[in-house]
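hey m, so remember when u said the tokens were messed up on ur end? i reran from scratch. heres the input so u can diff it against urs
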Amino acid sequence: MNTTADQFTVRHNGVTIPVSRGGTGRPLVLCPGLTSTQAELHELIDALRRDFDVVTFDLRGHGLSSAADRYSFEAFLGDFVAVMAELRRRGLPSAPILAGHSYGADLVVHYACEYPDSVGELVVIDGANPIPAPFITAADLPDFRALWENLETVDDIARQVRLTGRQILDLNLELDVLRSGIDLELDVVGAGILDRYRGIDHPIHMIMSTSMAGDSGEGRAPRHNRLWRAGIDRLIHERPGLSISWLDATHALVVTHAPEIAQIIRRAQTPADRATS
């Protein structure tokens, strides 16, 4: 196995994005979630590199990527498109598996819908969920604003997140609309990310947490956990052949259950895929 990672940089719209590639096998691109970095996912990345040629990177304003003057789903997706374009320029032996956690899962689903010829299959890790209602209600705003404004400062540059609490809150409000299709401010109801899934013909493997918001029976956790399960029920109704693995975990499963996630992804390959790994 090739254990040495190749490091290179992608520049897009004034943002510098560090990319790391290492391992041997079928190519797999791993997209971190919001407020997450390559450094935080090191255990999962190392486990995946035993079986895959893994490419990963830091989102703008995260880890070793530079800060930006704009943070939005469209901006993050544009960066992902630029990373994928650079990978194609450098050459890939086959269309890669796209894996993403949380916000990163939404990015890979949107990308796969828009660029189907660049994708082999998808691994959605506790994200891209067509929830039937937004997570963050008007009553929740003060608490969520306080939560992200009080993020702990990290000395390690590779793990730093340079977004403000307000920027993180705005991105989560935007994501609520993208997932549910419901914009409470504009009183608009649509299909949300379900429309993206309808445009994807590739195999999709989902790895979901049973207690996304924790196992507390108080506060917002019960409602959020119900919405999380209901969103997957909506998706199963739309895509009955979907492959789903549930882990007894919270939304932090990429850190707490990294070996299990790597094993699930390995087992999800078809026999033909394994033969070429």
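this time it looks ok to me. The chain has ten helices and ten strands. if urs says something different then somethings off w ur setup not the seq
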